[in-house]
Amino acid sequence: MGRVAGERMTLTILGLEYAFRWIPPGAFRMGSSKKEQKEAAANALEFGHEGVDYLEEQNRHKVKISRGFWMQESPISQGMWKSVMGNNPSLCLGSERLPVERVSWNECQAFIEKLNGFEICPDGFEFSLPTEAEWEYACRARTTTPYWFGRSLNGDKANCYGLWPFGTDRQGPYLGKSTEPGAYPANRWGLYDMHGNVSEWVRDWFGIYPKAKVVDPSGPKRGFCRVFRGGSCGDLPVGCRAAWRGTGTPDSHDCTVGARLALRPVD
Q1: DSSP state of 56
Q2: Which residues contact 126 (CB under 8 A, 6 or more apart)?
Q3: What is the value of pTM for the model shown?
Q4: Residues β-bridged to residue 20
Q5: What is the fold, at CATH topology level, of the domain defined by 8-265?
Q6: Interior CA angle at 160 toward 159 and 164, to 5°?
Q7: Contact, 73 vs 190, CB < 8 A?
């Protein structure tokens, strides 16, 4: 009998539980529709972000994920990072269950290399960052709306700057800090905080989307900036949509950017 979407698995590493959810193979439309792009640009303009047009989301295209993989249930925590790396670079403190932030893409690779050195992965899998396509596919969980839970966000269903809502005129909360997993609902595959809280590094270099259907894309072979996804507690809801793309150099640090692990099939 095959695995079920959202099936839960845990690994214990240095005394801490790492929970993962099974993400099945499948296909989806990656990026945002022209309608959503126009709505996003208008929303940004309304709140003083003139000139934002979300061109990076264009070329909405069909993507096939040919192999299932495990996605971490919530972002890498401060406790996990400290147990492996011996430090905690985060600015938002108070609980080791809070997501780690202010970690660079390069530092995430060092963290992952150490995890793989423990040789604890299920047979045929290895720790990695998800590809950008895998991340968006897991976030959407077979939904097509700007957020897995619908078309609007004002800080009620995800940790973001709810004072500047998207898809609704009703203002919501702004906490100004990250929250522990479980403060907001998980998507239908059991993943927490795919929108807001902390942005998450993915494997890919930033590049323009293709126009044709692709299978298991992994981005350009080289580039200047890496991609992060999901938006953060300090971002407008428009910047927490499933299609939104952020970028940073591999050695850059930001107090709103962390990461989420994947257990991907060994290439």
Answers
A1: G
A2: 116, 263, 264, 266
A3: 0.96
A4: 9, 72
A5: paralog of FGE (formylglycine-generating enzyme) (3.90.1580)
A6: 140
A7: yes
